[in-house]
Request: fold
Amino acid sequence: RRARGGAEGGHCMQAAVEAPPARQRESDHRVQAEVEDLGEGAERSVALGASPEADLTDLKPESGYSVRIRSVSKVGQGPPSDPIRVYTSSSAPGPPGMPRIVTVRPTSVMLRWDPPHNAGSVELYRLEVQAEGVVDGSKYATQDVVAFQPGDPRAELSNLRQASTYRVRVVAKNKAGFGERSQVGCFRTDIGIAPPTRLQATVGDDGANLIAACSWERPDGVPPGVPVTYHMEVDDGGEGSADFTEVYQGPHTEHTLVLKPGRTYKFRTRAVSPQGASAWSVIKGLSRSAGPMMVHVPENVRGDLMEDGRTVVFSWTPPSGLVMTAYQVKLDLQEGKKRRLEDGLEYVRDDLCEGVHRFQVRGMVNTKWSEWSRECVVTMP
Reply:
């Protein structure tokens, strides 16, 4: 009538029972356990023999069970004992699958591996990495991975040497500690080249447009006769943005951009040659482009009188190429409350009096209000 966990791996439990009276022991007494899995609700009966102690095996780690004991003899079955609840402990994870390459670059590699058989309890994975040629073969650099998809764990190793071979293995950890290590996987980083250097940008005005003349220098270490293709990307989202878009691909070390007033620009480049590809260069910022801060106004402002003769639906669209996060309407020179983007691009009134009514709307971009839109005039009959 009592049980305790603690068997190796948390997969079994020891149960101890009080012996029945002597007259029952003389009747070929046996003990039977009725075991219920509290998680799945499954029940099973287990014959434990005549001993007052026995092990319940084939239990799952980190699981709860309800156990009752009853005596069985030639006379029949006795009543069950009161149930007790027991919980098995964690077992250390098994070995993960051997790490495999997803992508490889000159100084980094993305790896993935299969989770161990009891992956549901894994708290983190530890990557153990060793470069080729290490004198002490027992020394591995480690990197812990705590954010991962349980069914598809992945991790990126960075700051590696170009054109170098590495060995890597993976070990999982749960509440019971670290488990077995995976088999060792090997990979080799790409043969790469240095990124372009000395990025420059000069902003000027050609009379019609704002122009940025961007330039850079050939990567160090690339022989003069080796062809190099450059990729240039630009981001105009301002501070904190990393939404780069490619604007140039070719052999030249300069490119000219036409800028939009009021935007903050930055650019980067990378080089590709028969020797390999470089990483991205440092990011070069452009001074805020000259000209006034321009925020375009909402467009296609209109007012439609419905068939009932008293409901008017005012509508508009955001300016092309911009996302407005809020709007404010003005009707007959009276400004309304700020409207969220979720409120839609319509304003409905069914209480307007007879006569002429004038409607305008403005929008917010990057915390700044635009000017009011053109005036829309509606005449109520």
About this structure: Helices lie at 22-25. The longest strand covers residues 355-365. Residues 22-25 form the longest helix (4 residues).
